[in-house]
Amino acid sequence: MVSSETSGNNGEFMSPLVKSIVKAEGLSQVELKRIKGSGKDKRITKKDILAYLAQRGRSFHTTLEKQTTESSNPPSKIYSTKTTNRSGIISKSDGDQIIEMTRMAKLTAEHMIRSKQTSAHVQSFIEADLTNLWDWRERVKNEFFEREGEKLTFTPLLITALIKALKNFPLLNSSVEGYTIVQKRAINIGMAAAMADGNLIVPVIKNADHLNLVGLAKAVNDLAHRARTQQLKPEELQDGTFTFTNVGNFESLTGTPIINQPQVGIVAVGIIRKMPAVIETSQGDSIAIRKKMIISHSYDHRIINGAIGGQFIKSMSDYLENWDIDLPI
Fold first, then answer.
1. What is the per-residue pLDDT across 215-271, written as a single tens digit (0 to 9) for each?
2. Which residue in 76, 157, 228, 289 has a CA-CA distance of 20 to 30 Å to 196?
3. Which residues pair with 296 in a beta bridge?
4. pLDDT of 78 over the 50 cut
């Protein structure tokens, strides 16, 4: 393993993210010297490390065999293990299985642990009435597909509201470096997407605020498809300024997602449900069936207080609830 003081080819320290990847992958100093840094002063970047790892590859079975040979306490007959397939799953005689994490899972685990250690996580929740938005989408989705050749899912519609909220509260579009806040000009939305193997990856929609609804829909569909087929480019996973995740895709009501460092906030949206609701009118109150969804906001309490964190998703909710039912596509 390489210590936390690992330096690049020029002797300067690497970023904490790069060092965490180096540590997780067990890269030696000899291997690091083979990597040509593309950063400032030839510093090794995340992109350089990932490119090297893609070429390097790792053999789980070779590692397991080495660990078993070197172990001073080899497993007894009751707990003996054997490889059942090529995926790194080891079956024990008592029926348990030992499953080696994939490289992606290791990197994700390291990233999430570092985020919890770095940011003071706090959450705010709000329930939004999406009835107007639901009815509008039902009315236009077929026409949209015929005209654009793209499905109109709820994700680009919800991201549109997120962009509006970020413009209203630009401090959420920031990062923290030590005791310095870097407020970003570009709004680059990271979109959590599921891969075919079950892992999550976060491709980034660059300058999302410059895209209209058609552009957002195409970007969302394209990135989601290439995430599932593992065809994303390294640069499409970088430079996000805020992250969006749709846990409703898995029929969850809500979630408390972990901030994607070095960002300061992440929004999770739950499943849209039919709910009885009180409707207030000048003629009196009534009960009606409405389409509702819970929005969850995790944010960094070091710079975002509860008032701003709550007002932020209230702004997002207000935009969605007041969706123009006659909006042209």
1. 999 999 999 999 999 899 999 999 999 999 999 988 999 999 999 999 999 999 999
2. 157
3. 125, 268
4. no
Nearest to 291, CA basis, from 80, 133, 155, 174:
133
Pairing of strands 97-99, 89-92: antiparallel
Identify whether 327 is part of a domain: no
User: Is residue 301 a contact partner of residue 122, using CB atoms and an 8 Å limit?
Assistant: yes
Closest CA to 243 of 198, 296, 317: 296
Q: Please, are residues 297 and 123 in contact by the beta-carbon 8 Å criterion?
A: yes
Residue 199 sits in the same domain as residue 269:
yes
Token pair listed for 67:
């660990």
**Separation between Cα atoms, residue 262 and residue 58, nearest integer Å:** 28
Could you say which of 121, 210, 225, 301 is catalytic? 301
Sign of CA dihedral 32, 111, 242, 203: positive
Q: Is residue 111 part of a domain?
A: no
Contacts of 228 (CB under 8 A, 6+ apart): 193, 194, 195, 196
**Is 275 within 8 Å of 292 (Cβ atoms)?**
yes
Domain encompassing residue 38: 16-57
| Shared domain check, 255 and 157 | yes
Strands of the chain, DSSP E: 81-83, 89-92, 97-99, 121-129, 174-177, 180-183, 189-191, 193-194, 200-201, 204-205, 242-246, 265-269, 273-281, 284-300
Question: Whole-prediction pTM value?
Answer: 0.71
Q: Is 301 a catalytic residue?
A: yes
Count of structural domains, the chain: 3
**Residue 296 and residue 255 in contact, taking contact as beta carbons nearer than 8 Å:** yes
> Cα-atom radius of gyration of the chain, to the nearest Å?
23
Full DSSP string of 13-48: BPPHHHHHHHHHHT--HHHHHHS---SGGG---HHH
The backbone torsions φ and ψ at residue 328, rounded to the nearest 5 degrees and listed phi first, read: -75, 155
Q: Are residues 36 and 68 in the same domain?
A: no
189 and 310 housed in the same domain: yes
Tokens 């080891």 -> residue: 90
